[in-house]
Structure formats: C-alpha cells, structure tokens
Amino acid sequence: MSTGPQRYPGASTAYWYQNRFGGDLQEVNVVVLHTTEGTNLPSYGGGASAPNLTLVPDFKAKRLKAYQHFDFDRSSRALVNLRGGVETNTLNVSQVELVGTCDPATHAKWKKAGYAYIYWPEAPEWALQGVADLLAWAHQHHGVPLTGPKTWNAYPASYGSGNGVRMSFAQWNSFKGVCGHQHVSENLHGDPGALDFDQILERAKAAGTQPAHPTYEPFPGSAFFMKGSKPALGKSSPVFTAMGKRLVAEGCGRYKVGPGPVLGQADIASYEKFQRKLGFTGSDAKWPPGPTSWAKLKVPNV
Known about the structure:
Blueprint: H1 18-21, E1 30-35, H2 44-47, E2 53-58, E3 63-68, E4 93-98, H3 104-113, H4 125-142, H5 169-174, E5 177-180, H6 197-207, E6 226-227, E7 230-231, H7 238-249, H8 265-277, H9 291-297
Parallel strand pairs: 1-4, 1-5, 2-4
Antiparallel strand pairs: 2-3, 6-7
C-alpha cells in the first residue's frame, strides 16, 4: 500500500515511466540521492534505469526543476540489485537523481569547456535548497527521517565496496532516512560524492516548519496530454479521472460514461468547454490544457 501524495508539487511528468515498468508499491522511509554525471535530463534507457525523480538545474531561474518518473511510493530502477543478498530498489526506497557531476576530473574538463553544470560538492545555495525542499516534502508527507550518514566521501574514493561508508546488509535493511548511492549495499557507485549533506538537512528542517504544499495536482506539461501533434487518446492515468471529476464539478462535463482514467474525446470536449468558460477563445481554448487553466481547475493530487 501507499499513503500520502504521490506527486511532488510542481514536478513534470513529461517523462513518466511507471506505465511501462510498473514497480512495486512501497511505504517509503528512505531517499537515496544520486548524481547523473551528465548536464541534461538523462534518457535512462527509456526508463529502464530511471529513479523516482530527477532534479535538473535551471541556471537562469536559479532553481531545480523536478521531473517525476514514478510515484513516490513506487519502486524505481536506479540501483543495482544482485541475486541473493538484500533488496535495494524495492526496500521502501525512493530515488532522486541530481543532474550534474561529483567527479573532480569531470568538473575540471567541463569547466574548461565552458559548460553550464553543477559540481555537487560545490553546489550553489539555490541548488542545495532545491534538494532540501524535496526532502522536507518527503518528511512532511511520508515520514522520511531527516537523518543520514555523517560521512559522504569525495569521489573517486567513494567508489567501490570497500569505500568505508558502504552499508552492510544488516545496516541497509534497518536504515531509515536519507543516504547516497555510495552508501547502498550491493552497489559500487560513489555518487553523489562529497555532498554538503549537513547544510541540506539544516535547510530541509527549516523548510519543514513551513506550511505543507497545497494538495493540487501540479501541471504535468503539455506533452503529457499529447502524442506528437495529436491528443494522446487512449492514454491511461489517474490524473484524467481526477481532471474529469473536476470538469463535471465546474459544469463542463460532456461525459455519457465516466469520467475515467483513459483519455477520450469527452475529456477533450469537457476541457475545451472549461477553457471557454474561463474566457479563452480560438486556438487558446483548444486542447491541450495549459498551466493557467490547469491551475484554475484545481485538480486534486493523485
């Protein structure tokens, strides 16, 4: 089973892999932090090695943009899980990839090349705050403890089974809180390196004293509603059920049956009627939904 909101507020679901890979239901009490060792949102092999969320730096806005690939309480696929031993991806774990690098050699190379990127051991305050905000939400809504290992080794010493911080099977099985890929049993990876974890926790605890986020479904991006240049008819998501119920409540429902989780023509007609109700005209009133009308519809978080 799972409890609490499953979508991180504001996260895009434009790269949603749960419909393809499923995953196990969990009651998450651990968050594992990774670094992508790249400068952009990875393809994750079409989702085959995807985490629950990816945080991508927006340097112009000085914030981290979240992309969600699986529900928070659904197992994802970013950890190695060997036969025998312990469970990793499915042991009540939600995984977060931080776009950037923890490798000082890569840092030097990218800096010389003039790339825009984050070297996570020296991450700017706005990036640390972005990670802290996510952990605060995980703590508030899912009870993930704001605690974790005291030592976060610098890369490349953090790599390997004998890095000095890798958990034993027993330690991993009993762990609750926030850790890095370098701490997880059965794995060899050393990311996210020498992350300033103390500062992240301090910011997360401060953010946790603020009011919880509204429980409305964040705008998933226009691409969520489309298949290429056409509406994504036949696509299934609980978001469509919640959307349809709100459209009915707004007096804009065009349903003979439903609403339900599979996107159909009735959903499109109903949403276009809602956009006309808001005063949109012409192409602005047509499918797909936009962020302004979506915010006004106030779809409950699913």
